[in-house]
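Fold it.
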Amino acid sequence: MAALLKKRALAEYSTQITEEAPPQKYKCVLKPVTSSNSAFAFVSLLETNNNNLQLLLRISEALHFYEKDIPDPEAVTKLGDHFRKEKESAVRVIILSIFSDMGSLPDVNAQLTLLIIEETISLLKHETSHKVLNQGLSTLLRLGKKLSTNHSLHLKLIQQAKEHLTDTSPSVKCKCFDIFGELLPIQSQPDTSMQNQILRLLGEYIHNEDARTRSCAYKNMLTLHNRGLKLDTSIYPEVCVALKDDYENVRVVGLKLIWLFGTTYPKTLVKPSNGDSDSEICLIDDAFGNICNCITDLSIRVRTEAAQLLGTMTSVSLPVLLQTLDKRLMADMRKKKSAHERAVESVATGTWVRGRGYTQDKAKEQLEEDQVNIMKSGAYGAFVHGLEDEYLEVRSVSIDSICMLSVNEPNFAIVALDFLVDMFNDDIQEVRLKAIDSLCKMSDHIEFREDQLEIILGLLEDSSMDVREGLQRILSSCSFVTKDCLQICVNNLLDSLKKYPQDKKSIWNCFHKMGSLHASLTLPLVPELLAIHPFFDTPEPNVDDPAYIGILLLIFNAAKHCSTILQLLEEKTVKHYSYLRDTMPHLVPYLPLSSSLTSTEMKSVPTATAKFMDTVLKRIETVENPRILISLLKVAEKDLSRLSQIDTEVAGTARFNSLFISSQLLFARVTKNKLWSSDACVEQQNLMKKSIGKLLKNSIKMQHLFVGLSSAELAAVRQFKLKALALLLVFVFKAAGQSTVNQTVRALCHYFITQVDEVNRFLVEENIPGEAFTYQVRKELSLLEEIKTESKKPSVLKPELVSRMLLPLIEDLKPVSPPKPNFNIKMCNAVINSPIGGPDTTYKFTAGLVMSVPLDAEISYLSSTKPLRLRLKYPDQQTHLIVPRIDHLRPNQFYSDAKNMYRLVTTALISHQVWSEACFVELNLVLDFTDIEGAIVHSLHPLNELCVVSLCKPVKLHVSPKPVRRGI
């Protein structure tokens, strides 16, 4: 025992500590294609290798990795010889697959491909294996499609396919049919004997006992027709037989062929497929009826395909189209009559006093058994079955088809309205949204009645915002029959506004459009809606009440089309009109009210505004004295900044020019101070770094925050950004010290040179003359590169050389006037509707857990949704950027006429540890361009939010995390 302890102690003291070597980095290099790793270098090993299957698989794998390896005829011959000796069918299949890959390589010439095809044909002559034949025909088809212009080869391959049609395998027959469909010459074949022969051959196999063969024959008929070979209508009755097939694949292809005949030869007269009449009808009507029969098919795939094809057959006659919404019921071998038909017969035959008809003992009309055919009912009730299907796929496609047919046929839209309204009660939200969108597209042809509105308005209570907004789109685009319908709609919208205040703007937009469409129906409702009494003065409503604003929007928009309403308005209503006209000019139209024509109303005059901006900018262009130019730029910046707040129509243009001028002035102030090009203390360096960072942030704003910029504006912004980068490069190089150039300076120098090349390329492509600074920088860089090339040194330019070259160029820079005003420029911004924030509401949650805060925001003129972020800034200065879900960002229906308008409805997740007291958490929307402008961030490390641009002012949430309660 003592010896054991002594041995263990010696082991502990003699333990050697070895330092692990740092992990080595390996670089994967693709080896060049040589004879050692070539795919065809293994072909010669087939004769000596025992495991030929593994060797062939290695050849096949090498073909996919070394596509530049060109095969030779010797390799084809060797593989063919090995094919003839091989007894295993699996190995022969792999050899034919290798032939297919070899001939399909991009660098293989046509002669070698022909050699592979000839070799494959010779190998298949005495082949008996179905798998090998299938692979061989697949190889011939693939290589034949590659040589698409060699029609003599295609005829030869078709002849080979005919010879293999006698094979008993359905897969081999299907490959032969594919060769017929894909390789049969059509456009360049003046003699149609071959084409008719192939069509006859395919027609013989549509009655084959195997379902795969029948399906493939029908499919290649469809392929030939799509390639330009028009099928004859004489085979139409045989194609209709496919709808009775037991296999769904055959029925699906048969549906497509019947649809093809109907849309290609719509006016051709044929006998009805059901044989009920000897009179001829149009082919489109008969095809429509045959496809309608498949709505009741047992297979969901067939039903979905049939419902989808019906919507594209817009040439169907109206009587046949209306039959799809007329459901004939069959029961007890008797015809079921509607209540209306029974009432008419009762009046015609007479009734007893108690309502008992004296002809009731008459025998009821009987039908023979062969006269009842449920499956061949034609178009009767096809869409009714589709809308009542148990699978939502069939119901959704049926709604789409009804919508497409209704847009082209107003009479059908009127009948289909009731059925689509019934779909509002569907259990699946997707189906309800389909019905809503369909009614919006049919809005020009339909009018709502009171009974229909009762069903429709029930969706205003739906918890889904998408359903509510969709219903509001319907109400704002469709017409009402009576004023009672309008009143019911207004009352339900006001009730929905109380229950869902977040729908305020969409409901206002609905009132705005309803008033414009129903001016005559709004007129009798004005006294009731505004509570106007003929003798007594009623109290003045609160103009900030959302419900009252909605009513005013309805009345004011109706008054634009009905001047009689203006005479009913009271003085207080006219004052409210002036207020709303100022705050909501896009919703409130101009009305000729005498008291409204005051100075308080803001009327945008584009012509006067354009003249003012043009005058301001022209005044700057004519000045050459730098001191006077700077003073004029200051005045212009102040005027344009104020103009962007006054006139919303030109706010984007004014804001862009104001930001451009302010950046020029800041650049002039920075370069005037010599601290940027000399060694300074830390405080002065930080101050200069913030100024340069602001210049770069302004350039990022001008480049990414505005939409509608022309090439001239983009060129001016990118050249200004180039100046700011040059200033940053010189400053960082001077701050780092000329003797110690770190990796950051080198990366910034490389980024600057890359930006110079991109800017020059952009100027050349857009044919825009560059500024003097851009020209001089490009010239100097070219000279430096030539010097490096002559000295036979590395071509990478050193930062010190570039900095010395930029220093005199920056010192000589003068402010540049902005480009000519472009009134198509719009600025991206955001408005957070909720949460409101402030100290009145305190959000409490358990520390360490997550609290969700609902967020509803509107984003205008957002060109790309990728950089959008939700920023949370905590009291300890921690900042989190959250990427919102893409499905939470939806187009803003409130601005239906504008582009790039979005509405973000999501939740902000807040989590933190315990605080001593409630503090504010800032919440706002930003655009993060770090991925695009990342090189700038690394050079200005303390300014982490340089590439983060705010879209709105932050909302301050009063948050109080509570400590976790410990249980007893």
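The two ends are 52 Å apart (CA to CA).
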